[in-house]
Amino acid sequence: MSGAAVNEYHPGLEGVIASETAIANIEGTDGAGGLEYRGYRIEDLADKVSYEETAFLLLHGDLPNREQLREFDGRLRKARAIPEALVTLLGEIPANIHPMDALRSAVSVLSHFDPDVNAAPTDHEANVRKAERMIAQMATAIAYRRRLSKGLPLVPPREDLDHAANFLYMVSGKVPSKTMRDAFDLSLVLYTEHELNASTFSARVTVSTLSDIYSGIVAAIGTLKGPLHGGANEEAWKVLERVGSPDKAESWIQDALARKERIMGFGHRVYKTGDPRARILKEHCIALAKEIGDDRWERIAEPIEKAVTSQKNLPPNVDWPSARLYHYMDLEIEIYTPIFAMARVAGWAAHIIEQLDHNRLMRPRAIYTGPPHRPVRPIEQRS
Ligand SMILES: CC(C)(COP(=O)(O)OP(=O)(O)OC[C@H]1O[C@@H](n2cnc3c(N)ncnc32)[C@H](O)[C@@H]1OP(=O)(O)O)[C@@H](O)C(=O)NCCC(=O)NCCS
Predict the structure, then answer these.
(1) Between 20 and 30 A from 29 (CA), which of 97, 152, 195, 358?
(2) Is 11 inside a domain boundary?
(3) 63 and 194 both lie in a single domain
(4) In this structure, are 253 and 297 located in the same domain?
(5) Which residue from 268, 313, 344 has its CB within 8 A of the most atoms of ligand 1, so it is best to mutate?
(6) From the candidates 268, 284, 327, 351, which is the catalytic residue?
(7) Whether residue 301 is found in the same domain as residue 339
(8) pLDDT digit string (tens) for 228-273?
(9) Percent of the chain having pLDDT more than 90?
(10) What is the CATH number of the domain that holds 99?
């Protein structure tokens, strides 16, 4: 493979094939378009499987049978506690630090306490065990940090609750309703994996040096934070708040587009005719708004969608409905992106393991645009 031609520049690597993967396909293997996790269409998974089943699918290659799920879920439930040293740190990080930055530090600290810390970075089985622990512990770290930064007492994990219900419980201290738990679980399923997006790519680049899985996840968290990627769900909520009422939507969008602003939660590098995840989540937004008896944000979202679609031909992406969904669950805007991360960790880990199982160092080239060759002048001759 060495000596590959370096002659075409694709800004943002758009359209460049940088990996092979058996994990997700965002074009659909039947040619019909859409998103598939290991050959299962997202619409099908959304109706039938939990986050735990989805994480198992990504890490182990197929959906679990009943016994496999019982064991996997049992391991996740038992792994939820986080080290005391991390709890202390989460309480000491200044309250104004963004939860994504706290999460990045938390995952780095978790690596020091992992029982497989000394396993080789390419040890497949150890990497799967580390991935399972991260799935369980990132949720706890996010919830604990939330409560500690607000001066609230910690709500320890409950082993009788599944991943989605337990997270909402640790954040609020209340066991969620079934509608709420189901909608949250679904949002995790939809956020779990998305081929070679920016954060997954950075995770794969990191471990392609034979660095460890935790370093790959830390790199991915840092990449996810940006508003053009995971940070978009927080920004999408701000759009709804700024528009404020259905009758202002059309002119607000017109003005924003005239100022060349990006409407967060709309557009996608790959899906040009619509993000299937957004379509699935929208129905749950409507159901949840009905359950809590407040459809104000649905009434604002609808004309915004219409305006962005008609004025710019941009359909909503997954972050558009998820911002509303999390608002209905009383989750604060600052933890929207950490929630994305706690779901996506299974996808990141699956990609990291796939990369390490068939590794080749990622080392692209750049076209040099700086000054031509020139002599170095002694310092006294420099202006
Ligand atoms: C996701 C995103 C970065 C992909 O964009 P991309 O494929 O790189 O598209 P480009 O940046 O090349 O934009 C193409 C055109 O669409 C416009 N555009 C793309 N997304 C837009 C948005 N959300 N709002 C307004 N205009 C947008 C660009 O301004 C550009 O317009 P122009 O041709 O008139 O200059 C982009 O759609 C975006 O910034 N969306 C908002 C952030 C977001 O929701 N991210 C989450 C993605 S899941």
Answers:
(1) 358
(2) no
(3) yes
(4) yes
(5) 268
(6) 268
(7) no
(8) 888 888 899 999 999 999 999 999 999 999 999 999 999 988 887 8
(9) 91
(10) 1.10.580.10
Residues in contact with ligand 1 (CB, 6 Å cut-off)? 228, 232, 262-269, 312, 314, 317-319
Residue 319 has pLDDT above 70, yes or no: yes
Domain that holds residue 43: 30-225+334-357
> In terms of domains, do 209 and 265 share one?
no
Told to judge if 268 belongs to the known catalytic residues of this protein, a careful annotator would answer yes
**Ligand 1, atom 26: closest residue by C-alpha:** 262
Contact 148, 94 (CB under 8 A): no
Catalytic residue among 185, 194, 319, 351: 319
pTM of the model: 0.93
- Shared domain for 121 and 208, answered yes or no, is yes
- Domain match, 44 and 182 both: yes
Q: Are 63 and 158 found together in one domain? A: yes
The position carrying tokens 């992106």 is: 337
Of 222, 191, 224, give the one whose Cα is nearest residue 343.
191
If asked whether residues 89 and 72 sit together in one domain, one would say yes
